[in-house]
Amino acid sequence: MSDDLVERLREVSFEKHQEAWGRLDGGQDLTIGAMLAEQAADRIEELEAKLGDSLVVAEAKLNDQTHLIEQLFALLDIKEQKDDGRYFHPNIIRSSRALDAEKLEEILVGLRRSVTEYNKPKE
After folding, report:
1. Among 8, 47, 83, 88, which has the minimal tally of Cβ within 10 Å of its Cβ?
2. For the chain, how many structural domains are there in total?
3. Does residue 14 carry a pLDDT above 70?
4. How many CB atoms lie within 10 A of CB 14?
């Protein structure tokens, strides 16, 4: 949408400059309108460039955080077998407070879900 807007602003600017040239009074008001249209188009492009850069940085941070969370779950998911044949998780996160343990469980479930959803193929 903004590409269309920028293109239209540039067209209007050109049209107003052309129209101003044909007037005996120099078309000062048309020239001012053309300059404003050109400035608006420049500003839109400038803001889009900044937004694009911000999105790239945000996506890189999200990818880094997702990778770190995946590494955390890879460690937590490790299972080893004891000599007697039973399995255990050598890496755990725990709390001696029951309410905090429940909150930790909710947080871990939410993190695992968000990482799983993030890694789903985009449709």
Report:
1. 83
2. 1
3. yes
4. 13
